[in-house]
What we know:
By secondary structure, this protein is of the alpha+beta class. Helices cover 33% and strands 25% of the residues.
Amino acid sequence: MYQSFYTGALGAGTCMAKMGIISNNIANINNDGFKPKTAVFSDLLNFNLNDSEDAVTELMSGNGVRLQRTYTHYDVSAMAQTNSLCDFAIAEDNAFFMVQDPGTGEITYTRKGSFHKGQWQDGYYLTTDTGKLVLDQNGEPLKAETPDIEKLLAMQSEDYEEEEEEEEEEEGVDKPRISVYTFSHPSHLVSVGDNEYSAPAGMEPVLVENARIVPCAVERSGTDLAKEMVRMIECQRAYSYALKMVTTADEVESTINSLRG
């Protein structure tokens, strides 16, 4: 009987954790570049009631579930045009801008391309909302003076790319450009807040060649309100069922104790 209490209480606690993930997704529905998270559960220790340990039967008992991890989908979301020359949207799945904290030198990755012109001693650079520097294909801070921004926009046209490639072949110079990176296992990235992610040790970024980047646009939040509302209803019902299990177990235990006298 104590197992019923444990399983029900564990299920209720897990539903509360899932509800927290859903509420966070809904709260960021207007946050550009946000990628929603999905809860992944795992069963806890199932065992057979009337057979050997390794046998697979219809009579199995478990100890509930637990929240194993959260999964983030880095797919392309809807885009919105802006009037800012510093805004860029990534039209590639599992691709990220590389940014660097000028104070600590820490490298993080983001899909939020709403950048600004930040003034430094030697000129203006592309920066994030939090003041981090946007890096180019060589891992160097990318300048954002007006002429440079116009070049970045021109690089999105096929004519410019062909001319630029010819010039680079002649001069042998790889000019700085806005670039995006990907990973072999993007699901292993760790969220650090502000729509930014860090790569664990051993994960190396790979430069995406000829990446599709849309200028004067930002990627909207990937939260689908309809899906999140359905998940919320499912979570609420599962939570009520788990509490009902606890209540029923308590009633059965009280009945048994009263029969014992």
